[in-house]
Amino acid sequence: MKNARVTFIGGGNMAESLVGGLIKDAFSGQAITVSDPDPKRRQDLAAKYPINVTDMNRDAVAGSDVVVLAVKPQMIRGVALEIAEAVAKDAPLIISIAAGVRVGSLEHWLGAETAIVRSMPNTPALVGSGATALFANANVSADQRDLAESIMRAVGLALWIDAEDGMDAVTALSGSGPAYLFLVMEAMESAGRDLGLSAEAARLLTLQTALGAARIAIESKEDVAALRARVTSPGGTTERALRILNEGDLKGLFQKALNGAHDRARELSAILDENNDK
């Protein structure tokens, strides 16, 4: 599996993070090809990793076991149509990381029999701590599912969802989620400064607290509600702070925020579908 021939169409930041993660996981660099139209980008990638680079998408796809579509959503239709003949000939697994592009559209451009996995990584994948949801069409074999999962696990957590509609919820939760947590950290930093801490002290204490809390949650068998209760002493400082946050309906605000992001994800997918059909 680690000698699978993997081709990336598009050599941007997310593709580079996957390339780096795969090589770190002992995938053969000589089995990895990145196709990108920018000669400077190709040069930089080839200097940094022991991989193959090209600007010829169709040639790159030929003979591949996996093709990762790592281009912007508005570019994916043209790329898919360009490589469709090579995909039909060699039948690689297609993994799309283009946000909002539905499997049905990819099947329309590449062929109804194409094995396709739609994935939704988030930006922490750039530092190897991503959360990626995966959805496979009916053409994807068990071995291809394993291969897709191993590729996305190179940059963090990867899990499968059963229905493609769930991707809109994934977008709202983990796709946009880093921004929510950055906002919470921003607010904590600001409050710390207002309480008299230096900017650097407020920043470092906030970031380390967020990291530590996440690590405890990941490593614990308890859910986050139980963990929150365990560090909230009756009559203490934490209890008072949490009571004030609850009075402000923090949970209700998050529910409204995620509902809004979910609805917008559906709208953007519909717009992409409409534009791609033109």
Query: Biggest sheet: strands, sense, closure?
Result: 8 strands, mixed
The total strand number stands at 8
Annotation field: number of helices: 12
The helix/strand order is EHEHEHEHEHEEHEHHHHHH
* CATH topology term of the largest domain: Rossmann fold
If classified by CATH, what would the architecture of the largest domain be? 3-Layer(aba) Sandwich
Beta fraction of the residues? 5-15%
Strands across the major sheet, in which order?
3-2-1-4-5-6-7-8
Radius of gyration: 22 Å
Features:
Rossmann fold, ProC C-terminal domain-like fold, 2 domains, alpha/beta, 8 strands, elongated, 278 residues, 12 helices
Characterise this structure:
- Helix content is 56%, strand content 13%.
- It has 278 residues and is of the alpha/beta class.
- The protein has 2 domains: 6-167, NAD(P)-binding Rossmann-like Domain (Rossmann fold, 3-Layer(aba) Sandwich), CATH 3.40.50; 175-260, ProC C-terminal domain-like (ProC C-terminal domain-like fold).
- Helix 7 (166-175) packs across helix 12 and helix 8 crosses helix 9 (199-219).
- The mean pLDDT is 96.
Topology, element by element:
Blueprint: E1 6-9, H1 13-24, E2 32-35, H2 39-48, E3 52-54, H3 57-61, E4 66-69, H4 76-90, E5 93-96, H5 103-110, E6 116-120, E7 130-136, H6 142-152, E8 156-160, H7 166-175, H8 177-194, H9 199-219, H10 224-230, H11 237-247, H12 250-276
Parallel strand pairs: 1-2, 1-4, 2-3, 4-5, 5-6, 7-8
Antiparallel strand pairs: 6-7
Helix pairs in contact: 4-5, 7-12, 8-9
